[in-house]
Structures are given as C-alpha cells and as structure tokens.
Amino acid sequence: MSTNAMERAKVWLGEHYDETTREEVQHLIDTDLQLLEDAFYKDLEFGTGGMRGIMGVGTNRINRYTLGAATQGLANYLKKQFPDKEKSVAIAYDVRNNSELFARIVADILTGNAIKVHLFESFRPTPELSFTVRHLKCDAGIVLTASHNPPEYNGYKVYWNDGGQIVPPQDNEIIAEVGNVQPHQIQFHGNDRLLNVIGREIDDLFIEASIRNIGFTNKGKEDVKIVFTPIHGTSIAIIPEALKRAGFTNVHIVEEQAVPSGNFPTVQSPNPEEPAALKMAIDLANEIDADIVIGTDPDADRLGIAVRNFHGKMVLLNGNQTNTVLTDYLLEQRQNDGMDGTEFIGSTIVTSDIFYDLAEYYNVECKVGLTGFKWIADMIRKAEGKQKFIGGGEESFGFMVGDFVRDKDSVTSTLLACEIAANAKANDSSFFEELLTIYTKTKFYLEDLMSITKRGKDGAAEIRQMMADFRANPPASFDGSKVIRLDDYQISISKNLVTGEEKTIDIPKSNVLIFYTEDGSKIAARPSGTEPKIKFYFSVKTNLDEISDFEWKEDELQAKIERLKKEFN
Predict the structure, then answer these.
(1) CA–CA separation, 507 and 176 (whole Å)
(2) Annotation says 147 is catalytic
(3) What are phi and psi of 222, to 5 degrees?
(4) Residue 492 to residues 246, 248, 496, 507, 517: CA-CA distances in angstroms?
(5) Catalytic residue among 147, 210, 510, 539
(6) pLDDT per position as a tens digit, 421-432
(7) Residues with Cβ < 8 Å from 383, sequence gap 6 or more?
(8) What digits encode the pLDDT tens for the residues 308-321?
(9) Per residue in 203-214, is it b (16+ CB within 10 Å) or e — as a string?
C-alpha cells in the first residue's frame, strides 16, 4: 500500500465529502488496502474516449466527486471561453446503472454555474447527443456512458460546439481547470430555471437527418429481412423507428435484448465486436431466414453486422469489412451524383489500409488520424468550408455518414447497411458479395485484433514496460518477412529501415508503434486509452482476381495472422 494512495484516501474523509462517501472510504481503509490502492493511486484521465472507469469511491473511480470536478472544471473553462454570452450544454446518458443519476448531478453543477442545460428526458444514443449540440448551437455537450465496458463501469465524454469530442489544446486546458478544482468549489446545488428537458422533438429531427444523409434508392426495402438487437442499450429508443420511417418493414427485434438494462443480463459483454454478443440475434436470423443481423453497443455508437455468405451461413463481419462496404457504397453514390474533387474520407492509423485503396480508386483523399472518432471530427473541423467529408470509420466497429453528426453513429450506419443489403438483394447480389467485389478492385485485406488485459496499478506498469521493450528491441521480422518500416507515434518518426530515411509524422503524439513488413503486413501495438488493455492489430493482404478464389485465399491469410499472433504469445 503506497503512502500516496493512503494520503489521498484520507482527504476523502474530510468535511467536504458526504457521509456515505466517508463511510465507504473508511471501510476500504479498514478492510481492503489493495482495493483502496487501486481506487486512489491516480486520478481518472481523459483518454481517446473521455473519462471512463469503475464506479465507486476514489480519485480513480467514477463518482459524484470525480464527475463533479470534471464538470466544475468544464464550467470554469466555458466561462473563460465565452465570457459575454449565455452559455448552454446538452447532456445525454445511456442505460447503465447510475447514468441517469450522474446526468442529473452533472446538470445541477452546470445550472449551479449559471449555464443553461438541455437534458434528455431518458436514455439516448451518443450520436444523438452530437447532433443535438450542433442543432441547438450549444457550447458543449456531455454524455454519461462507458460504451461497451462491463456493468461496473461508467464514463463521461465531453463534446465541443461543433459536435465533436474535445481534442488538443482544449482537452488539456479543460483537464488543467479540472485539476484546480477543490471539492468545496463544486456547485452541486442546481438552478432548475436553467434546465430544459428535451426528448421526442430532437429524436424526430435526428431521424430525419439520418435518413436524409443516406440518399435511399428505395429498392428492395420490403424484401430484405432484418434482425436487430440493441443488446439492452439505448438504440431501442431510436433505431426501430428510424428503420420504419426509412421504409424497412421486415424488421425483427430480439425481444429478450430489447429491455434496457445496465446489467446486460443476456450477455457476458455488450460489445458487438464479440461474437457471443450477437448469438441470440444470429439464432433468430437462422430461425426466420433473415438477410442481415445488426447489433449495437449500449450507447449506440458502434454496430456489429452479420450477413449470409455464399453457403447461406451467417458470418460476422469485422469492423474493417463493414466499413469497407459502407465506404465503397457512399463513394459510388457520390461519384454517380458528381464529385468536385474536394471530397475526403476518414480513417485511423490502426484501421485497414484498404481505405487508402478505396480513396485512390474513387480519386478522393483519405485522411488518417489517431484512434478515436474525435480525430475524425477534428479532420472535418479543420476542413470545414474547404473539403467535403463523405464518411469514415475505424476498425472498432464505428462508422460515420456525412458530417451532420461528429462521432461514430450506429443509427445512420444501420440505415446505410440495410440500404446496401436491400439494394444488393434487389440486384441478385448480397452484402457479402458486395464486399468480395470490392476486394477484386483493391486488394483482399484481412485483419484481426489481440487484446491483453492488465488491471490495476501493476497492470498499467506492465503495459508501459511492454511498449518500452518494443522500442528498445524492435522485432527485425514477422512471420519470416523483414520489417522495412517502423512508425513510432510517440516520437512522431517514421523510419525506413532499409534506407535509414526518417520522416516526421504530422499528427499528434500517441503511444503507438506500427511495423510494416516486406510482404505487406502491418502490425500495430497500442495501449488502450479507455480500458486496462494493450492491443495488437494485425493486417495482411493479397490479390483477389476472382471471387471464386475467396475461400482459399481467406484461409491463407487467416493462417498467416495466426502465425503472427503466435509470435506475440
């Protein structure tokens, strides 16, 4: 037990903390020093997805005081940024345990600071919060969510007035304000005269905007059979209605998972990246012979998709595959409508390089940023008035259509995926066949992800050491193929290991290493910004001249990925 953590814990026994909190802290001191250490050894930080952590007492936990300090710091920052105007903030929250309570605490702190708050009447998807910030011309937005994390987690994401999450320098400036907040300075007592409750009227506008941004062909909507599951999350409030208004009539909801619950009772993890989360939906799809399965995470910004392969079997697509089909469809539609050369798509450094190929094929630019949709929103912000954003996504099952929402958006992406499935079926094709057709005009890429979880203070130290070891002794080859380039985003250097030439990487620094091999493989190592994990991303590629070659080529690439994984094990 460190002296520092104990000293920090004893501060929480003071008069500025409520009686329940003081009792819980004293209980930890008396009974569980290991848990006390983890709860107090550091402050929660803003990562790629904001502030996220386990709920409970402590500086390293989500509770009324850590949220209070974050919100008071944000309020202080807004007062400095906009001293002479009426300030407003939109707040949304997901279905998680305590999310509604936390949202009300946050709202009270803001109104207590004379800031008007637009608070949703009940849980809503995260992308709707981004839309609301823009529509109501708010100065900032907040959503209470921990995305797909386990039930004991919650979190807090801050958005700026363009609807995108905060990025440098604002994030660091806000963090500095938060760091200066003392418990007695938090304005917990709100002013209800400054509280505006919002709901269905915003839902209607959001759904209308989502439909408008797709540009439907109106082909095959009645014939395509859709299975949808919100996995106990917020999308149940919006997606069924959005599908109905868009004209999709053959929609089947997994009723057991349509019940909103922060305990996610039917799944081990409410993450559509994990096959088990979509098992009930796939079982229903097989029962009714559906064409497509769509599942969304608790705050409805990510979506997982399953479609039928050439053998009629439901197969789960990874995030890169889904985004490949969505991006290609948008680009083809925009090309048919006529493009003026200012268009671009967005991606991230650990996402598949197929998006460079698609950009080249359609003669548009592919901008690439760090992991997290706040960086794609930042691209749009910087290109405002000069370039047109078509769409973009990242491998972790997130996609965004157009710029009316500035975060990953499963609502609009679901509509787009169903449009593609309907259109393909009407043309005697399928979503799966559309993917393989794309591979024949680019390259056939296959990706996989390996995550290693290291919890607590010791786990964080282990992850830091792993990254230090990679930098001190970088591998010379992977699967027998020589490493020819190493991109180190922490020092912003891309080094050609054959010629020795070094180039500056012109994006913000981040603790990421990416290795490129002679045979075209790409391997990335990156500690997660929101979970106690280190992630390894594998991407391999080959030519696919004929769709009929797909299966044996896929086996070949999958075997290569398994060999790469073994090297890391």
Answers:
(1) 22
(2) yes
(3) -75, -25
(4) 45, 47, 13, 8, 19
(5) 147
(6) 999 999 999 999
(7) 344, 367, 389
(8) 999 999 999 999 99
(9) beebbebbbebb
